[in-house]
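Dissemination and training. As part of the outreach component of the grant, students in the summer workshop were shown how a complex can be specified as a set of sequence lines and then modelled as a single object. The example used during the hands-on session is reproduced here so that future cohorts can follow it. Participants entered these lines:
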Amino acid sequence: MEIAAQPAETQEESVNYLNVNHTVKSWLLTLDHKRIGILYLLSISLFFLIGGIYASLIRLELVTPRGDLLTPEMYNRVFTMHGVIMIFFFLIPSIPATLGNFLLPLMLGAKDVAFPRLNLLSWYIFIIGGAMMMYTLVSGGIDTGWTFYPPYSSIYSNSQVTLAGVSIFITGFSSILTGLNFMVTIHTMRAPGLTWFRMPLFLWGMYSTSLIQILGTPVIAITVLALAFERTLQIGIFDPKLGGDPVLFQHMFWFYSHPAVYIMVIPGMGVISEIIASMTRKAIFGYHFVAFSSLAIAVFGFLVWGHHMFTSSQSMYQGLVFSLITYAVAIPSAIKTFNWVATIYKGSVSYDTPMIYALAFLGLFTIGGMTGLFLAAMGLDIHLHDTYFVVAHFHYVMVGGQIIAYLGGLHFWWPKMTGRMYSEIWGRISAVIIFLGFNLTFFPQFVLGYLGMPRRYHAYVPEFQTLHVLSSAGASILALGFLMPGIYLTASLFFGKKAEANPWQAYGLEWQTASPPPLENFTYDPVVTHEAYDFDSVKEIQEAREKVAVTA
Amino acid sequence: MSEHAEHVPGLAHHFVSMEQQKEAGTVGMWVFLVTELMFFGGLFLVYTIFRSTYPLGFEYGSFLLNMPLGLTNTIVLILSSLTMAMGVHSAQTNKQGALQMYLIVTLLLCLVFLGIKTVEYRSKLHDHLFPAYTTYNPAIKEAEPNNHHAVPQALKSEVRTFLWIYFLMTGLHAFHMIVGAGMLVGLIWMARKGKFNDVYNSPIEIGGLYWHFVDIVWIFLFPLLYLSGYHLNVGH
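and obtained this result:
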C-alpha cells in the first residue's frame, strides 16, 4: 500500500470515531459503520446473555433423570427460546453485523458502506424484532422448537407462535439489508489496486455470507409469515387438516435454515483466515482455493436442505441426492481446514489469545464437520436423527466454530475497535477455559445421542445420568469462560494500555490507520500495491506512510 | 477527499465519484430485486405445489375471479411501465417538464390499478368468497339466480386454498404497488425541485428498475391466477 499525498494527523489523541461526539443522540442517529458495529455488538451481547441463561436452565434440568426443575411444558419453552434467541438474534448477526460492519469498509479502504442509512435502519429493524421477541418471551414464550414445524405450531401449540413468527419476519430484513450493503460495497467501493484476489479472505467470507443472506432470508420471511397466517386465519397451506402440506413447510424452512448454518460459520472461517495468517506471519496457503471454497460452500449450501428430512416422508431417491450433495459440501470445508494447517506449518507462530481461539476452532470445527458426515449418511441418520448426537454436532459447529471464531476475532480486532489492549494473560486463560468447558459440555452428548438419548426431552433413563452430569458440569465451566472476556474486555476500556495502530504487525488496510480509526477511516487515500498477506511489506508500507506524513 | 464532494450536488460524502455512487445504487437495486424474487418465489412455489395437487380446485377458483378487470389491470401496468421508461429517458435527456409529466402519469396509472384491485377485493368480500372461515361461503353466491359457476361441494375446500393463494400473492403485489406509489410521490417531489438532470438521475433509474419488477410480477400473476380456469366450460 502506498499513499497519495495527504496530510496524516499525528497518532496521539487524534479525533477518532469514538471521541468525536459523546451524546447518546450521536450514537442513536449515527451513520458511521464503526458505531453501528458497536451498537450491534452491545445488542447481540445482551441476546447472548439471555440465550445463555436459557441454556443454563436446560443443563440444570438435565442434571437429574427426573424432570424435577421445570415442567415438561416449561422445558419446551426454555429450549425453544434458547434456540430462537441464539440463532436469530446472536449467531446470524454475530460476525457480519459486528466485526463485518466495523471492518468491511476499513479493509476495502472505503469511508463507509455503500448505504449508511440502510445500515442504521438494519440495526433499528433488528432492535424492533428483538423487542418483539423479548415481549414474546415475557408473555409466555414459544414451545415448538426453533424449527416451528406444523401442524404442532399451526394448531396445537398454545404459545406465542404468531408473535415469534412476525418477530423473525421483521428481524430477517435487518439481515437482508446487511447482506445487500456488504455485497454492493465489496462490488463497488474497493480502493484503487484492491483487486478481488487481493482482498483479505475475511471479505470473501463476508461476500459469500451476503449471498446466502440475500437469497435465503426472503424465503424464511415468507414462510414464517405464511405460518403466522396459517395460525390466525387457517389458510390451509401447511395444515394437513385443511388440505395443506406440513412437509412443504419443512422444505421451505430448511431452504433457508440450512444455508443459514453457513451464514453462521462462513464468517467465522473468514476470521480464522485473518488470525492464522497474522499469527504465523505467512500468506494463507492456497489463497484462491480458500476464497472460492467460501463461495462453493454458499452455493452448495442451498442444495442440501433435504438432509434434514430423511425421516419425514421424503422420497428415498431424493434423499440419496441430498445425501450426496451434503457429502460434497465437506470438500470445500476440508480444503479450508487443510490450507489453514498448511499455513501454520513452518510459520513463526505466536500464541497470542486470537491464535489460541484459532487453534481451538481448527480442532472443534473438524469434529463438528466430520460428525456432520455421519448425519448425512441416510442409514445412520435414521438412528441418529433427533438425538443428542445432532445436538452435539451442531453445537460443535455453531459454538466450537462460529462463537470461538467470533471471540478470536473480537480479541484480534479489539485494539482496533477500542484503541485499548486487553489483558493477554486473562485472554489466554479464558480461551483455554472455554475450550475445555466446551468439550466437556458437548463431547458426552455425542455418546448420549449414539446411545439413543433423544433431543428435546426433559427426563431420561437413569443410565444416562453420568454423561448428563458431565455435560452440565462442562456447561458451568463454559459459562465461566464466556463471562471472563465480558469482564476483562470491559476493564480494558478503562485500564488497558493504549493500542498502537498495528499491534500485531499484521497486513491489511485496517491496520494502516489509527486505533481507533478516525471518523472517515483514513486520513489519506489508500492505494493497494501488494498481494494479500504480504507480511514482508508491512514495515515498508508503514515507513512510506510516515514519510509522506512528515513531508506533508 | 471531502472537498470535491462538496462541489458536486447529489454526491454523498462516502463515495469517491458520481460514477461510483451510481454504480452502487444500481447494483444495490438489482441485489434487492433478487431478494424480492426469492420473496415472491416462496409463494410461486406454494402456487405450483397446490396447483399440481388440486388442479380442479384451481380451475374452479380461477373462474371466480373477474378476468376482464384483471386484464384491464395488466394493460394499465404495462402502460405504466412505458411511461416510467419514458420518464427515465426524459431525465437522461434533461427534459424537466416531460419528466414530471411522465412520473405523474405513472402515479395515476398506479392508482387506477389499486382502485380496480380494491373493486375486485370488495366484490369477493361481498360474494362471501374471502376465504377466512367466518366469511367464506360460496353457497350464498350459488343460491343467487343467474349464477353460472357453482363450486361443487367436494371442491369447496380446494377452491378456498386457491382463493387464499390468490389473496396472498395479489396482496403482496398490491403492497409493493403501494410502496411504489410512495416512491413515485417522492420522485415527483424531487423532480419538481429540479434535482434531476443528465448527470444526476440515478434515483429515477433505480426507481424505474423497481417499478418494472413490480410490473413483471403481475405479468406472471395474471395468467397463473385469472386464466388457469378460463377454458373451463362448467356451468355454461
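Chain B has eight helices and no strands. Students were then asked to discuss how this feature might be tested experimentally.
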